[in-house]
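Q: what sequence does this backbone want?
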């Protein structure tokens, strides 16, 4: 079974991911294939370069081909990206062409985007289930 995780609630990356999911992924005992992880709000902070959780996660992601993606608006607000939102302008109006954005100071392999980017990134290896924590 293929799973994608969405880290949306407070402390889910720093606690549930770091203390439960990541150790199982490292040991090969998680029981499912994790094809992607999407991070919202302060959960993005674990993806900072030098963060012990993020560095461990980046190694697992690189070895397995797992997607690591930050919410564009959340990353911009936390100075983990620079540029502009991908699918809306500064006033919150939707756009038909994506804005330019790039990660800043994150662990290797992290992407930044919004739902259309997430769907596109997972299209070639779609999850059977999406779990929001």
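A:
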């Amino acid at each position: 079974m293929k799973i994608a995780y969405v880290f949306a609630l407070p402390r889910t990356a720093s606690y549930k991911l770091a203390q439960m999911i990541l150790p199982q992924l490292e040991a090969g005992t998680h029981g499912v294939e994790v094809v992607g992880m999407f991070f919202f709000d302060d959960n993005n902070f674990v993806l900072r370069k030098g963060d012990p959780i993020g560095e461990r996660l980046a190694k697992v992601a690189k070895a397995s081909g797992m997607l690591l993606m930050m919410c564009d608006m959340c990353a911009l607000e936390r100075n983990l990206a620079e540029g502009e939102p991908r699918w809306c302008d500064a006033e919150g109006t939707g756009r038909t062409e994506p804005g330019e954005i790039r990660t800043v100071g994150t662990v290797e392999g992290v992407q930044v985007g919004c739902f259309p980017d997430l769907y596109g990134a997972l299209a070639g290896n779609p999850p059977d289930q999406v779990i929001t924590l």
